[in-house]
Amino acid sequence: MQPADDQQQLTPAQEITMLKQRLAAAQRMTALGELISTTTHEFNNVLMTIINYAKIGMRHKDEPTRDKAFDKILAAGNRAAKITNGILGAARNRSDDFAPTDLAKLVEDTLVLLERELSKYRISVERQIDDVPPAMINPNQIQQVLLNLLINARQALSQGGLVIVKLAHDKPTGMISLTVRDNGTGIPQEHLPRIFDPYFTTKDGPDETGKGGTGVGLATCRDIIEMHKGKIQVASTVGKGTAFTLKLPVAPTANNQPAPTVNVGIPTHSADSA
Predict the structure, then answer these.
(1) How far apart are CA 243 and CA 107, in angstroms?
(2) Among the three residues 35, 62, 90, which one is the final residue of a domain in this structure?
(3) Domain with 52 in it: what CATH number?
(4) Where are the alpha helices (DSSP H) in the chain?
(5) How far apart are CA 268 and CA 43, in angstroms?
(6) Taking each helix axis from N to C terminus, what angle separates 63-91 and 103-120, rounded to the nearest 10 degrees?
(7) pTM here?
(8) Could you give the count of Cα atoms lying within 13 Å of 169 in the half-sphere of its Cβ?
C-alpha cells in the first residue's frame, strides 16, 4: 500500500495550476489591502465632517444654521455608507463564481473607492456609460482589473489630467466593451508587445502610495480576462495617452428575458493613437 503522500502527489501541470491559484488569491488580498488603505483616509475625512457640523449644530440655536448642519451630516453619512458598501462588496464572496452582473454599477462602485485618490492628484473622470445588458463575469475579479487600470491611469497622470471610462455594447459580437482611457504619458511602441508579460514593468518601483512597480498587475489582468473568455487590448501613443479596453461576454438569457444581475481571452496590443 502506497503512502498517502505518494497517492496525493501532484503532476507538474497540477502544481503550476495550484501555484497560479495561490498567486491570484495573494494578489486579490494585496489589492484589497491597498483599497482599504486608500479609503481609510477618505472615511476619516467623512467622520471629521460629521463631527464638525454636529458641533456647529450644537453651538448655534437658529434654525437655518442647524438645518445646514443636518444637511451636511446627512450627505457625509450617505458618503460613508457608499464607501463601506464598496469595501464590503470587494471583500465578500471572493469566489470563482460567474454571474450576470450590472457593469455600470460595478464601474460606479469602483470609482467611489478611488474618488479621493483621483481627486488628490487633480484627475477628473468622464463617464461615457451606455445602456448595456448584464455581463457574465466574476464581479470581484473584474473589479480587481478595473482598479488596476484606474491606478495605472492615475500614475500616468502625475501632473493631473483626464480619465475617461466608457461602457458600450458591441451587439454583433455579443460582447461588452469597458474602456479606461487617460491623456497621460503614453507607452513607447517598443514596450507594447511586452506589457502583459509577468514582471515586465516600465516603472522604477512603487510610487509614494506603495502601488506599482512589480509588473504583476497587467499580467494578472490578462489571466483574469482570459478566464472570462474575453480580450484585453491596449492602444497608446507617447505624449497623448493610453486606452485599455476589456471585451467581456454578455450574460445568456432564457426565452429572451433579461438575466437577473448581481451588483457588486487572449490579449492583443496595438500602437494606435489613444
Answers:
(1) 16
(2) 90
(3) 1.10.287
(4) 4-7, 12-59, 63-91, 103-120, 139-156, 217-227
(5) 38
(6) 110
(7) 0.68
(8) 13
